[in-house]
Design goal:
With about 210 residues, the chain is of the alpha+beta class. Helices cover about 15% and strands about 40% of the residues.
């Protein structure tokens, strides 16, 4: 089969191969594809495309055109790329649960028995507005490794960017944490306007 070209709206899930590949999730087609980033041996992108890709971050939403052969499994190439939303996404693997802010154990202990999901919302004491929403999910569910499925584009995250339990505006920033020695993962959802808390949490998880 010859190359095919698709244009659509994509969520940037992450990078692979020392940043030489970008994993995109096609929001409309609900499918993921690896595309050559700048630095890949096959990428000889023109300057405007190179510049657009040089500032991309996981979680961004972009309008993009990609070209490739779905039958071969070879890396796809960008034809066009334009960031539309600067939402963010991060995956953190192998931390102690004690380094994660919020009532992590309480959330898991009080999880919904049907869906096995715990939800807690941390609010601003003065305004009552949500600072971030914390959810705990089982690490394994119905034979799936949820953390791996999320960071490989097999578990869609789009619904959380649209709406949360705590706010109808959805998350602007999402951090997914896979703690050591527990049977659950933790997801932190930050609505818009909580950049200071988000920066503090990022530093705490990175230290």
């Amino acid at each position: 089969m010859s190359d095919q070209t698709f244009t659509g709206t994509y969520r940037v899930i992450g990078f692979g191969g020392n940043g030489e590949r970008i994993l995109l999730y096609d929001i409309d087609r609900e499918d993921a594809v690896w595309v050559a980033n700048i630095g890949h041996q096959d990428a000889n992108y023109p300057a405007p495309l190179h510049d657009a890709l040089s500032v991309v971050s996981p979680g961004n939403v972009a309008e993009a055109t990609v070209r490739g052969d779905p039958e071969t499994g070879d890396i796809w190439m960008f034809e066009d790329f334009d960031i539309m939303r600067d939402t963010t996404l991060a995956f953190v693997d192998g931390l102690s649960k004690n380094r994660i802010p919020g009532p992590v154990e309480k959330s898991w202990e009080n999880r919904d028995p049907e869906h096995q999901v715990g939800v807690n919302v941390l609010k601003n004491d003065e305004t009552g507005e949500p600072i971030f929403e914390l959810q705990t999910h089982p690490e394994e569910f119905q034979g799936r490794n949820i953390f791996e499925d999320m960071r490989t584009g097999r578990f869609p995250l789009e619904a959380w960017y649209e709406e949360l339990t705590s706010t109808p505006v959805g998350a602007h920033d999402i951090i997914v944490v896979n703690p050591n020695e527990v049977e659950y993962i933790v997801i932190l959802f930050f609505p818009p306007g909580n950049e200071e808390t988000l920066d503090d949490v990022r530093k705490d998880l990175a230290d």
